[in-house]
Amino acid sequence: MPAIRLIVNGRTHALDVDPGTPLLWVLRETIGLTGTKYGCGAGLCGACTVLLDGEPARSCQISALQVEDVSITTIEGLSPDRSHPLQTAWLAEQVPQCGYCQSGQIMTAAALLAKNPAPTDADIDRALSANLCRCGTYPRIRRAIHLAAKGGTR
Amino acid sequence: MSATRRDFLKSGALAGAGLVIAFHAPGTAPATGLAAKDTLAPNSYLRVAPDGTVTVMIARSELGQGTSTALAMLVAEELEADWGKVRIEQANPGPAYGDMSTGGSNSIRSLWKPMRKAGAQARELLVGAAAVRWKVDRAGCRAASGEVVHAASGRRLGYGALAAAAAKLPVPADPALKDRKQHHIIGTTPARFDAPAKVDGSARFGADVRVPGMLYASVAQCPVFGGKAASFDPAAALQVPGVVRVERVGDGLAVLARSTWAAFRGREALRVTWDEGPLATLDSAGIRAKFAELAQQPGQTTRKEGRGAAALAGAARTLEAVYEVPYLAHTPMEPMNCTAHARPRACEVWVPTQSGSGAHQAAARAAGLESGAVTVHMTLIGGGFGARHRQDCVVQAVLLSKAAGVPVQVIWTREDDVQHDLYRPATYNLLRAGFDATGAPIVWTHRIVAPGIATQMGFLKEGEPDWSSFDGAANLPYAIPNIEVELITHDPGIPLGWWRSVASSQNAYVTECFLDEVAAAAGRDPYELRRELLRDKPRHRAVLELAAQQAGWGTALPAGQARGIAVHESFGSFVAQVAEVEVAGDGAVRVKRVVCAVDCGTMVHPDLVRSQMEGGIIYGLSAALKSEITIERGRVVQGNFGDYPMLTLDECPTIEVHLAPSGDPVGGIGEPGLPPIAPAVANAVAKATGKPVRRLPIGAG
Question: How wide is the angle at C-alpha B199 spanned by C-alphas B196 and B203, nearest 5°?
């Protein structure tokens, strides 16, 4: 198989994978970054959201070949020590329940805040409405994003 | 599950099924087998290390409900631990822990006493060790914040320094437990132990397990319930790069590959001829029609007050309605999965399960080994809601690992999850009410036609009515002199499972909506009528009044908006909710605000109660507004979140939770937040439109 070059969280990986493999599985099984989750395989739930050059994308819908030389950021690359304002806000608001969707929620929120440092409720609705959470952490996600916009701590 | 859910729903009898502290003689290894030198481990629930760290063993599943944090609080309270030194560790299933089923909102209720007792045992030992060390009367010593203090001399020693000596003392069988007025950890809101790993991607769920040399497997099952693979041709599947082998497993076929993606692609390429079996002609319309036909006959009476249904004959006026709910899937975000490494004389399993003990038994059977040769590691779990009591994924992984001779991770696709779930039953409900000449309700009859979960699982004695169908209906709390609740159990064959709040998930909707119809027929405000009929039910009434007051019941709302109210008791807790909805011109329903009042008796962790109320409401809103599993040609029509949608963030109402613990015994919190939301919303929609909502999801017609 041809080698594919992926730049993930600032590190370059030369990988022997079927180039049609969705990025999700390359991240999870080839590189070993399991923070990005499989939820639906159809781009419907957002659990697999990563950033591609800063834009949120569904890694289950993009082949590894399509993102060669693109800067890929996963939840593991958001900060080295849980210090990103979203992460501190998430903990301050005690957002996670089961936690499975949370990487995707946080990455989507990170892309929102990077563009819009002070989002309104309507902005959050627009950005996060396609990230499903079965446990029902939505009210706390909303609060945590507002808190993150103010620095991430109370 | 070995013990029936009924056991732990009704009596907390789980303690009798093995949640006894595994005592052992001083100096011998504890049941957990992890006692390092100089560590105090007086029972299977905790250990105190020489550095003062307290490790609490969690013998339940952390599904996101926060039970691991709350269980640690119970131990820490009695131990007088320094909370900053408390850690948790997931217990592996084994004889020390008995039944580890996590359901029925029962973890705190079943371990309320054992975990506190475990902490108290360690506390007494540490105090005793300090008294010996100081050669003082132990009555002059007390435990506080991870230390033993001798008041008279001012001496103090940390638990770590005392652990080795304490471990040599005999474990007290029945240590005194604190009075609730002395609680200073129970009732507070420490941060969840599981949260940090869930914000940086380091949390390990079942699907994140990696074992050297493992293969990934995807299992094709017959799309028709009860069908099986008749013949298959693996050639095309085996040509997919990365696919290693194709195996029969159970009634289906597994494709094993070097990556999940290759397994999925191999499965798509696999050619299978299915023997669809006897359910191949089943469809939802036929199921509904059969239910309606059966509802014309009397059923088994599960409750009778006064003259029951016979009193209808003497009523000045009667009212009749039919309520229906659909089959529902659970759709936790993490699809079913299990990783197993079966070897000739040992088997290791990693699984996100709601029943570690059930997984242990299932794995041992599948491996053909004694349970002592099987180790089950319970991983973090990407949502349960009742879906993860089943063990078929464990069996698949063990059998496939045995066949392949390497570790195997089985992962279901979302479509597998939606189409091969164990479903919340569809039910059909015929209700009648009778009024006296003054308009007061004097008769209530409710005939339920339903497939029974407990019936299907073989949990009932001969002739026993199926409580998994009538719970939440037969215990109607209202003071109506004549009540009769009947049950007709009829099973079309769709596999059934425990779905968050079980029968209360539909019966709260049915009964609380019909009560609103009764109020309307009597010309009464639905809140005021409830208050009156709950005169002998102070806990129902208290939460009802609190929710109504906080919601501003009776105050004006803009045109097109209305409020609905509902109250329900389940799993030992009482919850009332008021929903404010807006109904658009095209009938689209938007829930804008939910006010929730909850009395769960004694509260361990108020913020976890809040989060479970929020979660129960949102899970219930998906069911009330969106979810329906339909059957055509014996198979589920829906397949993924596109056609089995859930509530999204932009649709999520403002939720206000008001905590009103009565101080009664500790109640459940994982499920009780769900039952009132569908009727609160449906009653609001009925108020806004003038038309009762007699079928879910709202808008289903």
Answer: 70
Residue B449 covered by a domain: yes
Q: Out of A21, A56, A77, pick the residue that ends a domain.
A: A77
Whether chain B has a CB inside 8 Å of the CB on A83: the answer is no
The three-state secondary structure class of B328 is strand
Q: Is A80 on the interface with B (CB under 8 A)?
A: no
Structural domain that includes position B274: 212-282
Total count of domains within chain B: 4
Confidence of residue B37 (pLDDT cuts 50, 70, 90): confident
- Does any domain span residue A70? yes
**How far is A69 from chain B, CA to nearest CA, in Å?**
22
CA distance A72 to chain B (A): 15
ipTM of the complex: 0.98
Residues from chain B that touch A50, judged by Cβ atoms under 8 A, are none
Pairing of strands B408-411, B215-220: parallel
pLDDT at A85 over 90: yes
Is A134 near chain B, with CB under 8 Å? yes
Tokens of B380: 């973090």
Does B262 contact A78 at a Cβ distance shorter than 8 Å? Answer: no
**CATH number of the domain within which B14 lies:** 3.30.365.10
- For residue A103, give its domain range: 85-149
Structure tokens at B479: 């003071």
A120/B contact by beta carbon, under 8 A: no
Kindly tell me if the per-residue pLDDT of B2 is higher than 80: no
Predicted pLDDT of residue B7: 38
pLDDT on residue A1:
53
- Total domains in chain A come to 2
Q: B504-522 vs B526-533: helix axis angle to the nearest 10?
A: 110
Q: Rounded CA gap, B472 and B484, in Å? A: 14
B45 & B165 share domain? yes
CA-to-CA distance for B502 and B487, rounded, in angstroms? 16
Q: Do B650 and A126 touch (CB under 8 A)?
A: yes
- The DSSP letter of residue B327 is B
Q: Band the pLDDT of B36: cuts 50, 70, 90.
A: confident
Residue with tokens 């109370």: A154
> What integer pLDDT is reported at residue B4 of this predicted model?
41
Quick check: A92 contacting B, CB < 8 Å?
A: no
Residue B282: pLDDT over 90: yes
